[in-house]
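Write out this protein's structure.
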Amino acid sequence: MAFTELWERFSFYGLQSILAFYLLYELDKGGLALGSAASAGIVGAYGGAVYIAQLVGAWLGERVLSPKRLVLIGGIVIALGHLALAFVAGMPGLSVGLVLIILGTGALKTNITSIVGFVLENETDARRDAGFSYFYMAINTGAVLGPLATGFVQESWGFHPGFALAAIGMIVALVQYVFSSRNLPERAAQITRPLSRVGGRNAIVLTVVAIIAIIIAASTGLLAAESLSTVATVVALVAAAIYFGVMLASKKVSRSEKRRVGAYIPLFLAAGLYFGFLFQKFTAVSILIQDRVDRDLGGWSFPVGWVAMVSPLAGVLAAPLIASLWKKLGARQPRAGAKFSIGMIQIGVGFFFILFISALVYQEAIPVLLVLLFMVIVGSSENFVGPIGLALATQIAPKAFTAQMVAVNFLTLALGSSLSGLLGQLFAAIPNNAYFAGIGTVAVLVGLVLLLVRKPLQRNLYAGLD
């Protein structure tokens, strides 16, 4: 399962690292020349839709098809999507490819994680933690190797060979999965809560309604490239509001649990904003690289796809240092609200750093090494938000809604991805320095507010637990 996930992440992040440049580059450079606003809108909406689709995939894996079958179907659909991008030119290949990858990733991601849980459910806590550590390490390895490989291929031979390499990665994952799935526990092939006849009919009706709504939205121009991120942001917020509303209104949720859920809402919004700033490596930063960054390093051109890879690499390298710090502090370490504030302030400092560099060189090209240093600052800050949010969601979740609380945490990634598209469009519309100053200021202010309210926030977050 770990190697299957490694290759899936290889293909996903390999594509995402060069997608914005494919949309931005002129036709004579192999791109689509869509313009900054349209490119940022597509990339942001694509990332948001991938995470929203995972909620649907989790529901399907519980009610309609077994996780084992959905992972296989999802992998096949993802591979077809990458092949469409590799061999079908222009907008048709882009549209078909991205839609297939969104649907396939939605089916695969949450269900393969569930299968890992099934494999390890009868193990000791130590072996279970070790198993998930291998799985998480595979995710990070794929996130680094994918952009390294596809970025090099794109720089050397063009975008479509880069997309083809991502397809090869997914096909390798499928081969790995077919062989390893023979040894999976029986539970992986079972539907936990199959739909009743009435439930199945309602699901079909809702699906038809959704398809009709999409067709109407497309025909009225609502799904124009520049509007896609706005639509994805609204969908993510509405989905989160429904989840929170159901939990806060449920009679199955105790008073203390409702206090915890209510206290999580500002952290949910802060995390969505944080990931919106972080995921600009795929939107605003890509536009910056296209327009103002000098990628020359002693006669060698630093591949554009490698820039985004520096962010997760910095996060991975910083993780052991931060974990050892928490271990050393023990009970004295800051709690979730304070850690979120550190992450927000650090990413704000990163944007003030790039503001200083941008102002220093003014209209001249920005050296790529300074952009990479910016990526290190913002990438390492994820250790204070990403894993903390996931751990918090599982810790404070109402007993009757544990899975739903984890789903809400995933929505912070969907919200952040779509928001990064909106921010990328803003970046294209205003002066660079004004944009960097605005983002840095907002991030630092939100971080300071979280720091100021950390004590009452903490009391409510851990109500009934301390």
